[in-house]
Amino acid sequence: MRTDALDIARFYRTPPGRAARDMVQRRIQALWPDVEGLDVLGFGYAPPFLEPFRDRARRAIAFMPASQGAVPWPAQGVGKGGLTMLGDEQRFGFKEALFDRVILVHALEEAADPARLLREVWRVMAPEGRLLVIAAHRSGLWSRVDSTPFGHGRPFSRSQLGGLLSDALFEPVAWSRALYAPPWRFACGPKTVRAFESTGERLWPAFGGLILSEAVKHVGAVRPGGATQRVRRKSLEGATRPALSPRSDTTSHSDEQKGAS
């Protein structure tokens, strides 16, 4: 059973919730600075991380699993009409190859079948679309405290998450961690969190509370040296310094955009 959407919404109104939102948002903004004309989907509980895209993307939708429940987004009377959907996590109500960017947050940890969920995400993503997974990190403190939604369900290591993505025909191209501050209210003020984040990234990078992975959708990428390699080269060529740490066998990746199908 998933954590109730109302409980997650309440969490994001607390100091730890605001800290989680701010530290992840800064990475997303650096990773995907331009979503003009793109279709963006957030699955799980994504409104805190979709908000910067709401007025910039062509379409931004928060899709929440029925077992979790949903809350209205955006807030009543703010901007566009309701952009929240409720549905089956194993069968999204969208046509194939629709979304250019997908964010999974509060999604895989409590999924009944994470592999099947990822394959459904693959189905609705455009060719060479970009997926960002935000999940509780097995070695971090946040996965061990059940007062936050990151303390429920199964946390992941990098190897576990990478295996799931690869099996679902995604190619992980960049990794990062976030939330080095402990998940306690007194440690989650804005200045304190920034200090923990800066120090943690330099001194104990393996112990962030969240693990983030950007992955590219494979298109017919089952032949060694064939389409897999073409997708990888296109996603990495002409890049500047990545917002997330690149995988060990690459040195850069691009923010190349692809319009919706």
Search tags:
single chain, 261 residues, alpha/beta, 8-stranded mixed beta sheet, 7 helices, globular, disordered C terminus
Describe this structure in words.
This protein is an alpha/beta fold. Helix content is 28%, strand content 21%. It is built from seven helices and eight strands, in the order ααβαβββαβαβαβαβ. The chain has helices at 5-11, 15-31, 47-50, 114-124, 158-167, 190-203, 227-236; strands spanning 39-44, 59-65, 84-87, 99-105, 125-136, 170-178, 210-217, 245-246. An eight-stranded mixed beta sheet has the order 3-2-1-4-5-7-6-8. Strand 4, helix 4 (114-124) and strand 5 (125-136) form a beta-alpha-beta unit. The protein starts with a helix and ends in a 15-residue tail after the last strand. 43% of the residues are buried. The model is unreliable at 221-242 and 246-261 (pLDDT under 50).
Sum this structure up briefly.
With 261 residues, the chain is α/β, with parallel strands linked by helices.
Which sheet architecture does the biggest sheet show?
A: 8 strands, mixed
**Total of DSSP H or I helical runs spanning 4+ residues:** 7
Structural class: alpha/beta
Oligomer: single chain
Query: What fraction of residues sit in β-strands?
Result: 15-25%
Report the strand count: 8
Name the poorly predicted regions. 221-242, 246-261
> Average pLDDT across residues?
85
* Percent range of helical residues: 25-40%
User: How do the SSEs run, as a string of H and E?
Assistant: HHEHEEEHEHEHEHE
Query: Terminal Cα separation, in Å?
Result: 34 Å
Read across the widest sheet, the strand sequence of neighbours is 3-2-1-4-5-7-6-8
Radius of gyration: 17 Å
